[in-house]
Amino acid sequence: MKKLWISILVVLVVFPMMFQSSVKAATPISIIIDGVRLSTDQAPVMVKGRTMVPLRAIFEAFNATIKWDQKAQTVTATKDDTTIMLKIGSKTATINNKAVTLDVPGLNLKGRTMVPTRFVSEALGHEVGWNPKTQVVTITTSASNVGNAGPVPNVVAQDVSDFGDGRDLQVSFTRAANESLVDQYRVLIVKSGNILNLSSAQTITSYNYSTVLPTGTNPSIKLTSASRTVDGDSIKSNQAYVAYVLTVGKGSNASTLSSGSSTMTLVNKTVAAINNVQVNDISDYGDGRDLSVSFNKLSDESKVSSYRIFVVKATNYSNFNLAAANNVTSANYTLVSKTGNNLTQILSSGARDVDGALVKTGVSYRVFVMAMDNSNAANNVLSSVSSAITLSNIGGSNLTVSDVSNYNDGRDLRVSFTHATDETNISQYRIMVVPTSYYSSFSLAEANNVSIANYTAVSTNGTSTSLTLSSSARDVRGALIKNGVSYKVYILSIGSGSNSGGNVLSNASSVITLIYDSSVSTVYNLSVSDVYDYGDGRDLRVSFNHASDETYISQYRIMVVPTSYYGSFDLYAANNVVSGNYTAVSTSGSSTNQVLYSSTRDVLGDLIKSGSSYRVYVLSVGNGNYRDSNELSSASSIVTLFNNTSLKAVTNLNVSDDNDYGDGRDLKVSFNHATDETYINQYRIMVVPTFYYSSFSLSDANNVSSSNYTTVNTSGNSTSQILDSSARDVRGDVIKAGVSYKVYVLTVGSNNYSGSNALSLESSTITLLANKTPVVSVTNVTYKEEIGSGRILISFDKSTNESNISEYRVLVVPSKQGFGTADALAVNSSYYSSVIPNGTNRSTFTATRDVNGDSIVKGVKYKVYVLAVANNSGVQNGGLSNSTEEFEI
Question: Angle at the Cα of 290 (from 288 to 295), degrees rounded to 5?
Answer without folding.
Answer: 85
